[in-house]
Amino acid sequence: MPPRRSHKKSRAGCQRCKLRKVKCDEAHPICGNCTKHGVPCDFDDPSALSPPNSLVRYTTPSSSSNSSSTPKPSPSSSTSHQFPPSPNLPFHLDPPLPSTTLSPYSPTSRATELRLLHTYTTLTAPTLAWGDTPPAALAWQLAVPNLAFNTPCLMDALLAIAALHLRALTPSDPSLPRLFHAYMASALSSYTATLHSGVTAENGPALFATAALIAFQASASRRFLNEPGSEAEPYSLPTQWFHAFQGVKTVVIAAWPFLRSSDIRPIISAQPALALDLHPSRPAFFDDLLVGLDEQLEALPEGERDETRRAYEHSVAYLNWAHARPEKARIVGFPATVSRRFIELVDRADSRALAVIASFFAMTRAVDGAWWLSGVALKEVRGILGLLDEEWRERVGWAVRVAEWEGEVGEDVWGGRWGEGEGVDGGSGGWGDVSEHIEFVLTRGGGMVEGEAYGGVAEEYGMALD
């Protein structure tokens, strides 16, 4: 019998896993073991965590008086949009938990938060821009911290992502996982409380930035999991990654009237407009992922067939669009752009859906320089490969080749010339950026309503909002 494969112990797992002496996957907001057994997880309950002594919450008299109760909805209906029901959110919404206010006079506490804020503004913020545009990077670097000073959930999320980035840079520092978990738990608690109160002109931009930072940590935190496939660490699908980015899309829809003229609009405008060819007239690169779709749909209840077909065709069309010009903004937009139905198929571990996301993760090799995507391609593609049968393993051959390629991935490995066949508009369909696209879709769809009300119109132009 071959020797048992060794594995790195988790030092930042939840308390329940530590008490049971089992490996914790450190997934947020609820770890995999607690999800599996249907028990509370202290990642999801800040009161169950022992906040580090270095944590400090600076509060003004006004914010301190409001921190112990759930924020009330805005009295003005003209400036408030009630957030959609909880199934549209990346995490389930529990009642907000009371926050702990520690002494603001501890030099250690001040030094810790100053270190994290400095890390965010100088190192982390420039890596978060979806597109390689200076205005987007400046918005993350200047506008987001400015919003955070008056928004506790955003400040906590900002400090949490900085702690996670520092953990990637200095993995030997044992305090960083603890800082990250405490700040992120606090951010999730106040974020859900604010969502319950309604999206307003005052909190809309900050809620968008918070949702985006939560999504970034959902992807970045997976790099700290052990190699998948071993007995000690079975592979788990990155469903939280997709749900978190879907949450960003939901916040954008609810808060768009307040985002269009805000200082953080450049973050959204850095995303190019989608012009997806849902029914290409000539062969497309990922056509093989749709082979046999008709036969698969015949086995489904009739009421699910059309929606499922659209989910697959849209996701594969996005892959073809991103593959033609593998830019960061195109690739990282995939989890937020696919439909809710597609996410359900991923949750079910549907083979076709898994093959699609394996191809997406392989594409992240094109932006492997981003710390929160480092190593993602190889880890996720190998993990997904272990869940597929022989037929589907053959269909993801491109994903395996790209993910396992050592060194820079050139056009010969990628397949096809970058930008080939996109026309003079670069595959944007004549649109400037995604913000123009959102304006058009929401106007044609009848105003600011929930995604389901105009999902068909949006999908016609490449956006799956349902």
Written description of the protein model:
By secondary structure, this protein is mostly helical. The protein folds into 2 domains: 222 residues, no CATH class; 187 residues, no CATH class. It has a two-stranded antiparallel sheet. Helix 16 runs parallel beside helix 19. The longest helix has 23 residues. The N terminus and C terminus are likely disordered. It holds the Pfam family Zn_clus. It comes from Pseudogymnoascus verrucosus.
Given as residue ranges, the uncertain stretches (5+ residues, pLDDT < 50) are 1-7, 46-105, 423-431, 446-466
Q: Count the strands?
A: 2
Overall mean pLDDT stands at: 77
* Continuous helix count: 22
What's the SSE pattern?
A: HHHEHHHHEHHHHHHHHHHHHHHH
Helix proportion? 40-55%
Assign an overall shape. globular
In what order do the strands lie side by side in the largest sheet?
1-2
Structural class: mainly alpha
How would you sum up the major sheet? 2 strands, antiparallel
Q: Could you say how many structural domains there are in total?
A: 2
Q: What is the CA-based Rg, rounded? A: 22 Å
N-to-C terminal Cα separation, in Å? 50 Å
β-strand amount? under 5%
Brief overview:
With 466 residues, this protein is an all-alpha fold. 52% of the residues lie in helices and 1% in strands. The protein has 22 helices and two strands.
